[in-house]
Design goal:
The protein is mainly beta. The protein contains no helices and four strands.
Length: about 100
């Protein structure tokens, strides 16, 4: 921690370990001066940090849930979900996921 006198600034550092797991954490700060005047806390957070350690998930439904088809044309319903940071890119293919399919 560092302090200041007569109008100079005060800086402080802190460590934070998220205890509630993935999600968004809001931070507020307020100050008190040597004359015991205290800043009113802000209604809105002054900083927000997100923690996302959970993998996104994806699923494919063929022809609305058919187990098999005799048609060569099928409709694929693709669903991708990530509860915290959102899905940035996806890919799918006919064989092993993680192959050479391009990210979209």
């Amino acid at each position: 921690m560092r302090g200041g006198l007569n109008g100079t600034s005060f800086q402080s550092g802190m460590s934070f370990t998220p205890t509630d797991g993935d999600g968004f954490y809001e931070f507020k700060a307020w100050a008190r001066d040597a004359a015991n005047n205290t800043e009113l806390p802000s209604v809105l957070p002054e900083a927000i940090a997100g923690l996302d350690t959970t993998n996104p998930t994806g699923s494919i439904v063929i022809n609305g849930g058919d187990e098999f088809t005799i048609n060569s044309n099928v409709t694929l319903d693709l669903t991708y979900v990530d509860q915290t940071s959102g899905v940035a890119m996806v890919r799918f293919g006919e064989d092993t996921i993680g192959g050479d399919e391009p990210w979209e």
